[in-house]
């Protein structure tokens, strides 16, 4: 099968398409014939091994996982031992081990059935970014109908899901993005759009919740923009730092939060079937429309990942695999 492989850490162009053996599913796993796969921050971190603490998990000298990619959508083609809730032929989406390949292994509990009216490209955009947005809004910020929510990075992968899910939860949403993405964010349903090159998001304050996916604003700015019982969820931001890579604020937020009535928290999203099923419902009902930047095949994926580093992509980049 064709797969996008990496044998060492390096820039996006170090990813190469190669012919390799089709994997076999392990216990609790299935094989998925991948129709489409997502890429963005996650694939970039694992390809480059940056920031360095990534390597403590992914492999110190070289990546343990040589096939790139996590988000996927496709058909189940084989079932591993102990899997009783999926069958060959099922349309599924979720996260796998080496999604940027014609066939990928995936843990069955990291997949959900894909409703027949949802396309593979939309589905492949959803697992990591959609679950992250859902958990940030619903579980961390506990957003209620009528509350005021700011989404920083509203035209990005997580942010474009966060705007839409916050609206589904009944919030009044302020989307913060650069000028090129302002129309898109308005189309996603944001009640207010702030172009951060003209004025910053705190002009719309106070907010009951801030979902922070970009811009690396100081904690005091987030704190000041919250209502007295408000919550900021720091999802992430890219600073290019080789050691902390932007997570310094999450560490300081954990230290500061006990001393204030406002909650400053962070999130490590965990995709599982229940979360994917919630999102599958929204997709099937037409309430959630993933924003995607397309890449036409596996060969185009390294260049697409390079484009993501320039900040010119909208939503999640999705590679049509076959
Ligand atoms: N904690 C977790 O479990 C988790 C899960 C997924 C992702 N993440 C992290 O979350 C971050 C966002 O991920 P993503 O996939 O959504 O990235 P992304 O697709 O690159 O989106 C980031 C967006 O932020 C916008 N932006 C840049 N500077 C900004 C600023 N100053 N203010 C507001 N918006 C700004 C960018 O475009 P414009 O400037 O054109 O608007 C871009 O659309 C990354 O650091 C990623 O690693 C964490």
From TrEMBL:
> Where would I find the Enoyl reductase (ER) domain in this sequence?
10-319
**One short Pfam family name for this protein?**
ADH_zinc_N_2
Q: Which InterPro entries match?
A: ADH-like_N, Chloroplast_QOR, ER, GroES-like_sf, NAD(P)-bd_dom_sf
What superkingdom does the record give? Bacteria
Name listed for the protein in its UniProt record: NAD(P)-dependent alcohol dehydrogenase
């Amino acid at each position: 099968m064709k797969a996008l492989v990496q044998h060492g850490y390096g820039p996006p162009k170090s990813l190469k398409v190669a012919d390799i053996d089709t994997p076999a599913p392990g216990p609790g796993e299935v094989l998925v014939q991948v129709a489409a796969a997502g890429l963005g921050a996650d694939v970039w971190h694992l390809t480059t091994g940056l920031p360095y603490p990534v390597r403590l998990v992914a492999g110190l000298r070289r990546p343990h996982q040589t096939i790139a990619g996590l988000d996927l959508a496709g058909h189940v083609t084989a079932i591993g031992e102990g899997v009783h809730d999926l069958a060959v032929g099922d349309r599924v989406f979720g996260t796998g081990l080496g999604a940027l390949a014609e066939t990928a292994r995936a843990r069955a509990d990291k997949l959900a059935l894909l409703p027949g009216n949802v396309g593979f490209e939309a589905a492949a955009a959803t697992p990591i970014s959609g679950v992250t947005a859902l958990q940030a809004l619903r579980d961390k910020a506990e957003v209620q109908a009528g509350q005021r929510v700011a989404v920083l990075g509203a035209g990005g992968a997580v942010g474009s899901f966060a705007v839409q899910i916050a609206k589904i939860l009944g919030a009044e949403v302020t989307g913060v993005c650069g000028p090129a993405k302002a129309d898109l964010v308005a189309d996603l349903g944001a009640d207010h759009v702030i172009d951060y090159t003209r004025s910053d998001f705190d002009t719309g304050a106070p907010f009951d919740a801030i979902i922070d996916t970009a811009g690396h604003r100081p904690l005091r700015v987030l704190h000041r923009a919250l209502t007295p019982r408000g919550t900021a969820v720091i999802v992430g931001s890219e600073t290019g730092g080789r050691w902390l890579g932007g997570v310094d604020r999450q560490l300081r937020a954990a230290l500061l939060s006990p001393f204030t009535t406002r909650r400053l928290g962070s999130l490590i999203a965990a995709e599982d079937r229940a979360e994917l099923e919630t999102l599958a419902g929204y997709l099937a009902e037409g309430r959630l429309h993933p924003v995607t930047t397309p890449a036409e095949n596996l060969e185009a994926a390294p260049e697409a990942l390079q484009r993501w580093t320039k900040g010119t992509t909208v939503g999640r980049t999705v590679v049509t695999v076959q």
